[in-house]
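Record type: monomer structure entry
Structure origin: computed from sequence
Chain ID: A
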Amino acid sequence: MKKIVICTFLVAAAAVINFNTDIKTASPEFTLKNSYAITLGYDKSMSEKTIKAAVIDSYYRSVVANGKIIRWNTATFPLKVYIQDSADVPEYYREIVMSAYQAWQRASEGLVKFEFVETPSEADMKCYFKNTDNRKSIGVHSFSISGNKITDSTIIFNRKDENNHSLDSKQLFSSALQEIGHSLGLTGKSTSIYDVMYPIGTKFNYEITTRDLKTLALVYATIPDITNEPLTNSEKANLFTTSEILSTLNVPVTNDTKNLDGVVANDISTHLALAEQYRRRAEYEKALKEYQAVAQMKSDRRSKSEVYYEIAVMYLDAEEYSNAKSAAEIAMATDTNDLTDILPPLIDYYTKRSTSAIEQLDTILKQNPYNKHAYKLLCQIYRDKHQENMLNATIRKYGKTAGDEE
């Protein structure tokens, strides 16, 4: 989704509240060029600190947990993409899917590249529109693999939703972004509701995040187990193995049975890695101690508040609402900013009080029409409620100031 006077407040407050949590922070190693593009492309010329920071601020470990790294050989880019031009679906379907491919190419600054072709026989990636047995899922991706070779990649989008209506253009775009992410090698799932690769459910994301991009870059910095064309020895020489990337953490990350209690954390990244592991094991008290350590090591109010914001979100996802409220109170007391402003309506959203959430978000946006967090959450609520008129009105009113991909 931090020292000096505030440190005393945070430690005292956390001691009284006695809650647990998880967090992700942005790494200073990357220079933001726009709302979602970062400088991409990792190799062995990068410092261990840079790689470690990227692993922490990504879901690379989720990809690795699925087993083998499956990705394309960049020497074969641009990948040829076929998108079915079907008379059985609205014209915008094809355009939406095409724009999703372009979004990945643009956001990755050309790390991945595509070329659209007219026939499936000449394509590496193929997209079709046909109804499947699962109407709740908008799209599904699969690789065709022979031995250790990718022969092609196929995405199938349903022609109709579960109510037999044409797919909403925004939901189709969100699904296309995710399925294309899978087809590029992002076989894992993010735990952050803001990332494109978060399991969709009712949450539709339209903006490729820095976490999505860092994960993609790490996958393409890893020697693949399965690819479309074998890498040469010279191509492999400057890339990492999976174990080399994970070893930068100095924390067990692939075997949850290992004892973490003996790990000594001396920096923020290691504390965060430990916190994530403890959270995955539902050892929340231990996770809390790691997050408290992170908060104490931060040096400004804004960064401290972001730690507690993420804690609140983790507890909301776990449906531990009392602890989430406690974390939110600390975040808001620590610093007032666009992120902490949406915590009260976010809690209402999770606890099924959508009317209250809408009223608060509307007030926030009237006061600050540039608050993209409030804008995205308000749009999400209207989508969940299938209130297309209110959604479109919100986009017209605030899309130019707070929106990106809307």
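Annotation 1: The chain has three domains: 1-68+209-334, 74-184, 336-406.
Annotation 2: The beta strands are 79-83, 114-117, 125-129, 139-146, 149-157.
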